[in-house]
Description:
The chain is an alpha+beta fold and about 325 residues long. Helix content is about 30%, strand content about 30%.
Amino acid sequence: MKKKIALVTGGFTGESVISLKSAAVVEKTIDRDRYDVYKILIYPGDWHFVCESGEKIPVDLNDFSISIGDEKITFDGVFNILHGSPGEDGKLAGYFDMLGIPYTTCDQLTSAITMNKGYTKAIVQDIPELHIAQSIQLFENTEKNRKRIEAELSLPLFIKPNNGGSSIGMSKVKTWEELSEALEKAFAEDKQVLVEEFVSGREFSVGVFRGKGEIKVLPATEIVSSKEFFDFEAKYIPGVCEEITPGRMNEEEIARVSRVASRVYEKLNCRGAVRIDYFLEKETGKFFFIEINTVPGQTETSLISQQIRAIGMEVKDFYTQLIEEMFV
């Protein structure tokens, strides 16, 4: 008998648009011989499934079920492709844990921690061969904090919301005159902001997942952007940046990145597929950790999809491994 899988998408943030695009790819690619898939859209106060007839069926939040006619449908597991809150920050994970429903992504604690860039860096900073840029984590936008930034950090700086994705609210600051506006932009998106020194290096993103009981590190993608940094436009508008998969690294760098990425995955107790962004510093080749994304995009052109194809695996088989791993 085929397993019933809820494909959850939508969300409470601006990333919901990307989540819907990812869900559309997963929905058409997933192995229908093995799974019956129901796309569940989750918005504030509105969780629903849309029938082929167009009828909107509400989700019963008591047990995460839907009723189509006289049939009540419960789910064997959840394929989580909801970027941002509540799919990536641990809220949905905690809900599914209470109901005893398995899901494809990290557990509640790991999801909550990794959504916070500052807390994540504090946990991974002692991993061998991994380096962290100098930074300050802010909880309010005050003159005192602005003076602290000028006293403790050197230009240029990256200013970014501490809990968030898709580079929304992020700025690169080259002069102190730009600092106030960048902080206001970031604090408009989040109550916590990370201010970080710029690392001059080549930018990469590497997928890591657990499949068939093993942690697998995919070939990294090198990102060559025509923009100042890999911002929302560079990520989602074709032609703004060049993505090279596999990225241009020598054998030593490939081996070192694989070691570090595996250790990050293990130390944060990750599950499913994640994407780790990093720099290789230009002068030294050192691995500088940027952030981890625990619900990475699954669009046709997403980095994870490119990396899966680079190892000769069908994306459909990749999804099957993610789903089966949650039942282990």
